[in-house]
Design brief:
single chain; 303 residues; mainly beta; 4-stranded antiparallel sheet; 20 strands
């Protein structure tokens, strides 16, 4: 693969109290010909994640057409699993509604945070979302002992499939606890109740790799492709292939995109979202600072 970077299409500047910084974990939703809505996670002045959106015309992606004036999903109430943040991760059209799978954040005591997976629904075309339940649909458990986050959800012949981040340990370190998480797989009959068996989709490649996150699975006729983020020190975008979505072969060296020599995405690239539009394949991604510098767009070049 060869990805050609087109532009940084959005930077989180002056959006309001709910979006004091960051535009992380982009999700693309088609609206009409050429026009797409990009959901993202912003942070308020208390560092809590809120989900909002902006809209672009793919013919002129550097020109923002619209930005939401309020979050479509804000942090939850006192004591809830998403009290400290509601970070959108994936959207699934389901009959007359849109389902938003998101990461709920809690500040923790002995470690910096704990995550769970929540679900919200929209009946107004994604202008706003309401929680399906007060509690998470996926939380830590026998196969995921520390936390879960960053779901990617696809539906195939009535079978709901999820690839998600699973934290397997925290390690004590001089500068504070260090997490280790990789990507696991789950299935569901309804998108709400999930069966987990501890099946690892993408595992650590070596002891120095501490994070595998934000899976994005694209189904092609001959295979399934996963784009994800991996890091020891700084995030890079990785790539894997599978015949069945369960057993994956890592091919990170074939992903065809890397950090720039200078500028907003010169230190890290992460949180890829890959989608097809009008015969082209595009990638949304974040640059330095886990989304602090905004969102870029790249296009897959023909062989």
């Amino acid at each position: 693969m060869r990805w050609r970077k087109l532009d940084r299409i959005f930077a989180p500047v002056g959006l309001g109290d709910w979006a004091a910084s960051h535009a992380a974990v982009p999700i693309a939703l088609p609206l009409e010909k050429h026009r797409w809505r990009i959901y993202f996670s912003a942070r308020d002045h208390r560092n809590r994640a809120h989900t909002g959106f902006f809209e672009v015309d793919l013919r002129r992606p550097g020109q923002t057409l619209r930005v939401s004036d309020r979050p479509v999903l804000a942090p939850g109430p006192l004591g809830a699993f998403d009290e400290d943040g509601a970070m959108g991760s994936w959207i699934v059209p389901d009959r007359d509604r849109l389902l938003l799978y998101y990461t709920g954040w809690n500040v923790a005591k002995s470690v910096p945070f704990r995550n769970s997976i929540g679900l919200a629904e929209s009946h107004d075309g994604g202008e706003s979302f309401q929680r399906v339940s007060a509690g998470p649909i996926l939380d830590r458990g026998i196969h995921d002992p520390f936390f879960v986050a960053n779901p990617c959800v696809l539906v195939e012949d009535g079978r709901w499939r999820m690839w998600y981040l699973s934290c397997v340990e925290w390690q004590a370190a001089p500068n504070g606890p260090v997490h280790r998480y990789h990507i696991k797989y789950a299935e569901s009959a309804n998108g709400v109740d999930w069966s987990r068996r501890g099946q690892v989709a993408i595992d650590f490649k070596d002891p120095d790799e501490i994070a595998l996150s934000r899976p994005c699975v694209v189904r092609d006729a001959d295979r399934e492709r996963m784009f994800y983020s991996y890091r020891g020190d700084q995030y890079r975008i990785g790539y894997a292939e599978s015949a069945d979505g369960r057993a994956w072969r890592r091919l990170d060296e074939e992903v065809g995109i890397d950090v720039a020599a200078t500028g907003w995405d010169s230190e890290m690239i992460a949180y890829a979202f890959v989608f097809d539009a009008e015969g082209e394949r595009y990638m949304l991604y974040n640059g330095n600072g886990y989304g602090a510098t905004g969102i870029g767009l790249a296009i897959l070049e023909a062989d």
